[in-house]
Amino acid sequence: TLRPFPKDFLWGAATSAYQVEGAAQLEGKKLSQQDVINRRPGVADAEVASDHYHRYKEDVALMKELGLRSYRFSLAWARIFPDGVGDPNPQGVQFYHHLLDELQKAGITPIVTLYHYDMPLALVEKYDGWIDRQSVADFAYYTEFVLREYGSKVKYWLTINEQSIIVQYWTKKNLIPEKYLDDPQVRYQINHHMNLAHATACKLVHQLVPGGMVGAAINTAPIYPLTSTPCDVMAAQNALDVRNLFYLDVYFKGQYNKAAFIYLEEMGVAPKIEPGDLELFREGYSDFLALNYYSSDCAKFPPPDAQRTESGVNYTGKKGEIDSYETMPDFFQIVRNPNCDTTDWDWAIDPTGLECLLRDIYTRYGKPLMITENGLGFFDKLEDDGTVHDDYRIDYLRSHIRAVQRAMHYGVEVLSYNPWSFMDLLSTENGYQKRYGFVYVDRGEEDLRTLDRIKKDSYYWYQQVIASGGQK
Ligand code: BGP
């Protein structure tokens, strides 16, 4: 039998600012990069999202009733500093105080992300955002203010959400200005600036928040060789270095993964490193790693003529749409895992992969881990009687919770589990068609939406899970 979860385990749930708040241009907030993305027709925008900005009290009451011990959310930089730097926006600053106070009254531990894809538009217009090294100093300015303001209310800080996404989906996620899309080095330079920003924020947390703990939130997946041929095994090792350790070695060893860096240099895309950068990496060490886990990957050795390609995105929710995954010439090609079922959006469902990943990362770096995203996107159906029967989501989460428990049984230190997402929110590619929440948000058609909150079956199930300490 598996050892039970510790009594103080933080059972939580997650969201991010632009995906739930709405109020994109209200009460002093100015636009962020996310607010101006040209979303495909029919996909909701961030203007209203789930209207959490106005309904946070109701939402925190629902969290309390659910029994949450932690809540992972992000601050909207452009709500606090509408122009990215300069004068703070008092109403925006107050909003997060109110939210944090409400959470505190409900006995819920906040886990706060500083940056979740939403660069203030002012900085994108001024110098193209993360492409310019000035972004590191501006992020530090924002971070220092935030830590002085909320440091006494927040112990757990997450720096940057999923910086690898920019590198792996460079044309797809609308995060790089168009004029740079053909320059492959830019993606690695942005990533380097994010590493510097991350390290600076870690240092600041250590300086300004007594007892504070800080880490990055990264999307990582275990990478299996497609077959047991030595060249596929080699390709899986190459992919591990480039897709995972290239990020994690910076957080925990203060250096770039050697194999990945040499390969990128040979490709002519390695980032420019200035004197002192690597020292900063080492000074800005992480206390833990936050993992966003949805699925696992498979790798094979690419054919000799293969070109560099980014990963595909399934936009429709019709299984089987994705046939292109990231390819690195002469190094690896990511392919579909023939042994795993997938979600409607072609994401492999693999709870065992989560256990593998947790054990592997903990063995490598020996630092505590937390899960800050994990969940199943689905076309949920609101029944006429106001219920949502999402047993598929319950199955998904139950098997992943068991994987976390198994990893902990074998010695991995996991602090917290925060499924994506607490409530339905603006999915990055599919708006409200692809839902993840325990709480359904009625977005209806434009003029029909009530924005009512409706508890899904998974809400009642997770309530039992938490109440029973993870035994259900
Ligand atoms: C992660 C992001 C989240 C969230 C999630 C689900 O990469 O950190 O912001 O959106 O993925 O992705 P999607 O909305 O595309 O289904």
From TrEMBL:
GO cellular component: cytosol
UniProt entry keywords in alphabetical sequence: Glycosidase, Hydrolase
Molecular functions per Gene Ontology: beta-glucosidase activity
Family per record: Belongs to the glycosyl hydrolase 1 family.
Protein name per its UniProtKB record: Glycoside hydrolase family 1 protein
InterPro entries in the cross-refs: GH, GH_1_N_CS, Glyco_hydro_1
Source species of the chain: Neobittarella massiliensis
Pfam families for the chain: Glyco_hydro_1 (PF00232)
